[in-house]
């Protein structure tokens, strides 16, 4: 019963490894926790404990906390309307503008969750399992 999902997961991991091998000096170190394709057709692979890899089809790039990520465990990736990427971890979020990473401060709002309304361009995040989310990013600030 569970053999097919396990087989497909293994096949997916092997195909990613093979397709990325030889395109640069970096091969994924671990299994991807999250895969995201951005608007420029780059693929981003979020890993548990090993940051994020970017593949543009010719080269692979590896980013970690040494490069400015707030955490080496990536649980989610989204892209805002301006092309910035947001990397979600268990308790923090990093924004990447294509050159540098910036940690986003969580702003507590006095409004209750029932007061929130969806605006064009808003992105929503869970940020881990122990937080009181959801969290809303309006293109500039991250709100709790």
Explain this structure.
The protein has 144 residues and is an alpha+beta fold. Helix content is 12%, strand content 31%. The protein has a 4-stranded antiparallel β-sheet, with no helix packed on it. β3 and β4 form a beta hairpin. The longest helix has 18 residues, at 3-20. The model has no long low-confidence stretch (mean pLDDT 79).
Order of helical and strand elements: HEEEEEEEEEEEE
Spatial separation of the terminal alpha carbons: 41 Å
Number of domains: 1
**Can you tell me the CATH superfamily?**
YVTN repeat-like/Quinoprotein amine dehydrogenase
CATH architecture: 7 Propeller
> How many β-strand runs?
12
Mean model confidence by pLDDT: 79
> Taking Cα atoms only, what radius of gyration do you get, to the nearest Å?
16 Å
Which strand-content bin applies to the residues?
25-35%
Short account of what is shown:
This protein is α+β, with helices and mostly antiparallel strands and 144 residues long.
């Amino acid at each position: 019963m569970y053999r097919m999902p396990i087989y497909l997961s293994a096949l997916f991991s092997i195909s990613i490894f093979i397709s990325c091998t030889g395109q640069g000096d970096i091969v994924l170190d671990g299994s991807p926790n999250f895969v995201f394709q951005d608007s420029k057709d780059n693929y981003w692979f979020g890993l548990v404990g090993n940051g994020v890899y970017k593949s543009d089809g010719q080269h692979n790039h590896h980013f970690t906390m040494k490069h400015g990520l707030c955490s080496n465990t990536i649980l989610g990736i989204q892209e805002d309307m301006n092309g910035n990427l947001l990397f979600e971890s268990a308790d923090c979020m990093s924004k990447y503008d294509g050159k540098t990473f910036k940690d986003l401060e969580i702003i507590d709002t006095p409004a209750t969750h029932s007061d929130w309304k969806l605006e064009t361009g808003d992105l929503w995040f869970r940020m881990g399992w122990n937080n009181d989310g959801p969290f809303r990013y309006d293109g500039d600030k991250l709100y709790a």
